Amino acid sequence: MNRFLLQIRFIALALLLSTASTVVAQIASSPQSLDDVIYNPAIKDGKARHAIGEYQMKQAKILSEDRNLNVMTLRNTEVIVVTIPADLLFEPNETELSRDAELVLLKYCPFLRTPGFYHMAIAMYHDNSASEQYSKELTNLRVQSVYDWFAENANVKDLYKFSFGNSNALLPNNSMQNRRLNRRLEIYLVPGQLMIDQAKKNLLK
Question: What is the CATH number of the domain that holds 95?
Fold first, then answer.
């Protein structure tokens, strides 16, 4: 009987260690910074890079039809960056999404539809009109609200969130218009491994 109980304990311990290893591996593989998302995975195949660049430019052109947003590309057109003024998503100093925010965010759900096709990063920023601590707390709560909305409306397996308080200003905080532009959400649309594999096989349309 004692031997049987000992075997049970060994099995339970093995299962516990296996679960812990899985959790550690998941943490280790999670992006630690925004740059980790933007620059990974790297596209080494020249043919795939060209195909993805053309595909991303088409997507960027469609997204730029909204004149309220700023759309640009990084990594030689491989990565799309969309900048959304925070006042299109939130009322002043609020952390709950406004009623009109859904209309702004809906167009990004298709980019999360197929796991592995895109990696998406969302990054929230504020101006310097408040203390650094307040700005950090505000951007953290706001980006969480955006993440939660996507979690309710899309697959968030490849969605990563970051908040930066009042750092990384786009413009000097010396006017109302500049501060408005510094209060923003940035959405990064990064090619995932599935997109890269399709590009290598000429399947990217």
Answer: 3.30.1330.60
Q: Are residues 41 and 26 located together in one domain of the fold?
A: no
pTM exceeding 0.70:
yes
Query: What is the count of structural domains for the chain?
Result: 2
- What is the dihedral sign for C-alpha 149, 153, 156, 159? negative
Residue 33: which residues within 8 A CB-CB, separation 6 or more?
A: 162
Burial of 191 (0-12, 13-18, 19+ CB in 10 A): buried
* Domain that residue 26 falls in: 1-30
- Whether 71 and 139 share a structural domain: yes
Give the pLDDT confidence score for residue 30 in this predicted structure. Answer: 67
Which letter, b or e, does each residue of 168-184 get, where b requires 16 or more Cβ atoms within 10 Å of its Cβ? ebeeebeeeeebebbbb
Q: Which stretches of the chain are DSSP H helices? A: 2-29, 34-38, 46-63, 101-105, 132-153, 176-182, 193-200
Q: How many residues does the chain have?
A: 205
Mean pLDDT of 17-26: 41
